[in-house]
TrEMBL record:
InterPro entries: FAM86_N (IPR029426), Methyltransf_16 (IPR019410), SAM-dependent_MTases_sf (IPR029063)
Gene3D superfamilies per the UniProt record, alphabetical: Vaccinia Virus protein VP39
Superkingdom of the organism of origin: Eukaryota
Organism of derivation: Bicyclus anynana
Key words, A-Z: Transferase
Name of the protein described by the UniProt record: Protein-lysine N-methyltransferase EEF2KMT
Amino acid sequence: MLTNNNVDNTTIVETLAKSFFKRSLSDLNSGYINNMTWEMQDKFLYKTIYSPLFKKYPGSPTFSRQFFKKLIELLEPEHEVHDDIYGYLCSVMDSEADQFNYCHYLIDNSLDNIVTIKETKNMVLNGTTGLRTWEAAFMLSDWALCNQDIFTNKSILELGSGVGFTGITIVKHCNVKSLVMTDFHDEVLETIHKNIHMNFSVSQDQQNNDLVVSKNRKKDIGVMKLDWNDTENLRHNLIPDVIIGADIVYDPSIFQPLINIFEVFHKRNNNVEIYIACVIRNSDTFNGFLKTLDISNFKHKELSVQRNVHIRWDENLPSWSLLRINKETFN
Ligand SMILES: C[S@@+](CC[C@H](N)C(=O)[O-])C[C@H]1O[C@@H](n2cnc3c(N)ncnc32)[C@H](O)[C@@H]1O
């Protein structure tokens, strides 16, 4: 915990701004809040709700309400509270009914390195789990940033991308050749597309049947409909070097279809590398997936993963696994 003795004002404002973007209330309890003069409160507002990013893509009103309420509670006994802090609290209370909001994820705990995702906090919305970012997506992205060589100059295919946090983070930070995010739900696909436009300056969108390719500094970021139950219509020129997926192992009825997709791409490229990040909510389900892999002659290896190196992902995660899947036996 920071104390007010030896921390300068800029650090205090930055720490508070980071805790706001990280959606963490814990730093607010620290002793340094009593140093927050009006001027520092003003600086804090310009780093957060008045920043160009946040003005364009305001974050969760529910969290903003909790944060600003707590901030006011702690500030009031010590200082005059900035008018705009009260004003902002009133405005978010009005807009809380919205189902979607913008989440700003700090990479490397930096205010200069943020991935912004439009998503819901609901587990299921409009019949899909794909409209929010799940913990496995943070885990897979954090691991990818620790293992960038695997992605450098490679064609990446993501299965069940959801709102696109993993794909977008990998394109931003790993020097990929191309990356295609896929899903089978139309609203999810539309949301990925919007999230790509929010995070990259796209020079051009090219529609090619079921594939939309956004051009960003000569890098191609694709969004495509891909249903694991349909191996017949997979476009022939899609030959990934690396396949990734986060939190796509939860429904036993789609284990075999998913593995059929692995099979198709393995036939197209014997060296394809497959990495699947799983949250293990039920060990029978997870073991069922491993068994189905085995029956289909796929081998697997559990990779060791460090927590929270570049991205925070450990909250409330009971048990998890990052699988490397292959036809050959691992050394
Ligand atoms: C739990 S969400 C995970 C989303 C994202 N990967 C993440 O971790 O945040 C599962 C995703 O798989 C997609 N999905 C489920 N069944 C599918 C299928 N048969 N074909 C393609 N995608 C599917 C859903 O639409 C959803 O986006």
